[in-house]
Amino acid sequence: MATSLNPTYFIFLSAALFAIGVYGVIAKKNIIAVLVSIEMMLAAVNINLVAFNKFFTPEAFIGQIFAIFVVTVAAVEIGLGLALAIALVRKRGTTNLDDFDWLKW
Amino acid sequence: MGEFIAFIILAVCLLGSALLVVTLRDIVHAVLCLILVFFSVAGIFILLNADFLAVVQILVYAGGVSIMVVFGVMTVQRTQIQRSNSANSRFLVAIPVVFGTFLVAAITAARNIWTPANVPVPENDIKHLAPILLDNYVIPFEAAAILLTVAMTGALLLVKEVKDSGNKS
């Protein structure tokens, strides 16, 4: 046995992190807390991709390439999300997502 | 055995700080725990022989993203920062959904019989990553560059100070 770790541990870990992120997305009031939870879900996806890359296709590096693109899209998402949050607060003066219930500016 | 102990320590650190992110009442403290989450993920990457991704994780997330989030909190949050991270009434719905998500993923993973390729990840991974990224995946690479440019321009337009021009709103 080359290593004592196997893929199941990493899948459990990333499933737990993803579940915590889902809880944050559903149950948080603050718009920035929801963005932070989405970041944690994307980090869970990255752990899964890199773990599969190590255990199944170690010489192809496809999982790590995908993880790099996920990092890029996550950075874009948090930047645009924060810009939207700042614009919304300027307009409405609140960060509570339950108050954002109008359909028209 | 040493790898296993490192995994346990990193996993406890990761899940503990992730739980703190969603349970702490003060959003500034939650963002500080988020930095710990990102460092733990970088440790997991090092454990998985992905050194380049670990460095990218620390530079982009623990450096850039968390500073940006802290900046956003400071800009957005005017009053009542002590209770700025509270949960709404939907957490009763959220808890079964969360346990369902975790159980489905865990049961599917546990029932599967993995046959890992017993090949170590090659050393010096950035030498192997660069040809793939700049040769086979050059179109997605350029698309990601354009995406970053467009997103930066869009963010600048969104946060630009709107001049008061009378009867606009």
Q: What report would you give on this structure?
A:
The complex is a heterodimer of chains A (105) and B (169). Helices cover 73% and strands 0% of the residues of chain A. Chain A has helices at 7-27, 31-55, 62-92. In chain A, helix 1 (7-27) runs antiparallel to helix 2 (31-55). Chain A starts with 6 loop residues before the first helix and ends in a 13-residue tail after the last helix. Chain B starts with a helix and ends in a 10-residue tail after the last helix. Chain B is mainly alpha-helical and 169 residues long. Chain B contains six helices and no strands. Chain B is 73% helix and 0% strand. In chain B, helix 1 (2-23) runs antiparallel to helix 2 and helix 2 packs antiparallel against helix 3 (51-76). Chain B has helices spanning 2-23, 27-47, 51-76, 91-111, 125-136, 138-159. Chain B has two domains: 1-94, Four Helix Bundle (Hemerythrin (Met), subunit A) (Up-down Bundle), CATH 1.20.120.1200; 122-159. At the A-B interface, helix 1, helix 2 and helix 3 of A face helix 1, helix 2, helix 3, helix 4 and helix 5 of B.
Write the layout of secondary structure elements.
The complex is a heterodimer of chains A (105) and B (169).
Chain A: H1 7-27, H2 31-55, H3 62-92
Helix pairs in contact in A: 1-2, 2-3
Chain B: H1 2-23, H2 27-47, H3 51-76, H4 91-111, H5 125-136, H6 138-159
Helix pairs in contact in B: 1-2, 2-3
